[in-house]
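Justification of computing resources. Each target in the renewal requires a structure prediction run like the one illustrated here; the chain below, 248 residues long, is used simply to show the kind of job we budget for.
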Amino acid sequence: MTATPARRPTAYDVADRYDDRYFGDLAGRYLHRTRFARQRVANVMSLLPGDLSGLRVLDLGCGMGTFTVETAKRGARAIGVDLAPAALPHAARIAAAGGGDARGGSIAFVRADAAKLPFRTHATDLVIAADFTEHLDDETLARVLGEAARVLRPEGRLIVYTPSPSHILERLRVAGILRDQDPSHIGMRTATELAAALEAAGLKVVHLGFLPSHLPVLNTLERVFGASVPLLRRRIGIVARRPAVEAA
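Resulting structure tokens:
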């Protein structure tokens, strides 16, 4: 008899991983401005426009709200979206501690599924998916990217930031040498695979690069050699644009 192939987990199968402890750990790193948190913020913000004043920003899979808060600090009208019940209380705490109105920005959080967004078409200038796509199976990823494309205005941009499976740390995790692999990382993809998924959603990739980790020695090596050495590509950073609406 031929064995039935095991069903691959979906994003919803691993949803119970995102509990109070999970978001509490991330919130603590952000509030204490750990090296990890500082590098993560610097990496993602380097992919965004320099001036966010007045822009409508949607932070998908916002978790404890890092980039909802960070973009609002820079003047954006930011909305964080997460389906996990434990996420938004931590996000509200981060927003209260981190401010957000320094340059006229605003913050809101909505519990919703990123694969079925409760926002109108062309409602948003910028969508951020930071440390989110690695938690999605292929079908859910396609739906999320389709929704991101729908809510973006013409010429609006989607930012994707995610671990690269080619990096030496990820290779060691797969090999079982490092034991801290996150079981919810069911959708680790190469930059090429992500670019193809974005194009399939109707988005145009305008930037694809690699960003460093927070670890001091690796950080230097990744900055110098990451573009040419896959083992030193820690984070993938992609900017994709929604094409302008064609004239009738």
